[in-house]
Amino acid sequence: MRKIVLAVGVVALTVAGCSSEEPTEPVAEETGTARAGSDLAAEAGSTEVEGAEPRLVVADADSGRIDVLDLATEESLHSFDVEDASRITTINGRYVVATDEKKASVLDPGSWTIEHGDHSHSYIKDPVEIGTLDGDEPAHVIAGDRKVSVFFDGSGTADVVDFDSLSKGESAVATTIESAPHHGIAVPLSDHFVVSTGGTEEELPNGLELRDGSGELVRALEGTCPEMHGEAVFSNYFVVACDDGILKVDATADFATTKFPYPPNAERAWSVEHGSRGALVAAPTATGVLVLDTRSGQWVEARTADEAVASGMSSDGKTVLSLQTDGTFRTFDAVTGAELSSTPVLAGPVGEDDSPAIVVAGTRAYVSDPAANAVVEIDYRDGGRVARTFDFEYSPGSIGVVGA
């Protein structure tokens, strides 16, 4: 295992083309630099590269500093200063939204990959802060339907930004949804929004309602979801964790709801994670990891001796990843629940104030170790082997990967 210590200073990003060949046709100045023979225009200011060049994004738990690292060269490319923001949400492997108590900062770390038919295109550019959305207590940041919504708990409003705006380097609010103050969600789905209801500033929401594209009420949705918290969004449906099971909202069935009760004796889920492919979601619980097939409603349990504090799904949807309170990283077969590997990755057991996370990017997983001021890179397909450890001079409050 090799350790990489990251310098505090910011290293300037120099973007280089991936080929020495000249483009076959002049590239319009208002776009970027496409590769020779590319069948897709490059975004303004970007350079198309030969393959994915993922970047690790790490937020300081205390200062609001957010670092962007090139995972190939191990260089620090840029540092954002977003004041008190220490929580980041990665949007579609491209953008990052950092939140504090009074605003959401929209950042472009500068690396992304676009699937284009039977092939893909990868791009890089200088990291840049796109803009901010001001409001009281932004919490759940949710992407879907080529939009991203930020729900402000203190005001009960949600600001929605279109991806088209973000790709132009803007964070113009396309729609604002009005609700009551609570720890809520607003899910963009099939030209509509599904918004939580029934919550207060002290109690979690227990219901959902359908809004049209302008945010106006259409109707309340059937089914209850007591103590709602934790969601995963797919192309035309989403699921959300409740006290009594997982609730599915399906836009292809006129936004009908289906409840999948937890297996007998299973602990409830508070968060759900899904991979880039497939219909499975994984949820860490006090007794291990629950895996739900969101199409069939079938459950698989991977029980562990210690509580699971974070979970993830492999990119191909075949492997479940889990981090336990004893500092062990485990992998399980997503179909059978059988354990595949077990690797100690944290410096010690998870403390009460620690919030380690798992982020999956391609064939690697990244685990934050707040107590050790580190992020651990794991090859989960190779028996959970620790590939690299990135050391920081601060405690990672949140992590993400873009461009994988």
How would you concisely characterize the structure shown here?
The protein is mostly beta strands and 404 residues long. The chain has 1 helix and 36 strands.
Structure description:
It is a single chain. By secondary structure, the chain is mainly beta. The chain is built from one helix and 36 strands. The chain has one helix at residues 163-167, and strands at residues 2-5, 47-49, 55-60, 65-70, 76-81, 87-91, 95-99, 103-108, 111-116, 119-124, 128-134, 138-144, 147-152, 157-162, 173-178, 186-189, 192-197, 207-211, 217-220, 231-233, 237-242, 245-250, 256-261, 273-274, 280-285, 288-293, 299-303, 308-313, 319-324, 328-333, 339-344, 358-361, 364-369, 374-379, 385-391, 396-402. It has a five-stranded mixed sheet, with no helix packed on it. A hairpin with a 4-residue loop joins strand 3 (55-60) and strand 4 (65-70). The longest helix has 5 residues, at 163-167. The chain is globular, with a radius of gyration of 21 Å. 48% of the residues are buried. The model is unreliable at 1-29 (pLDDT under 50).
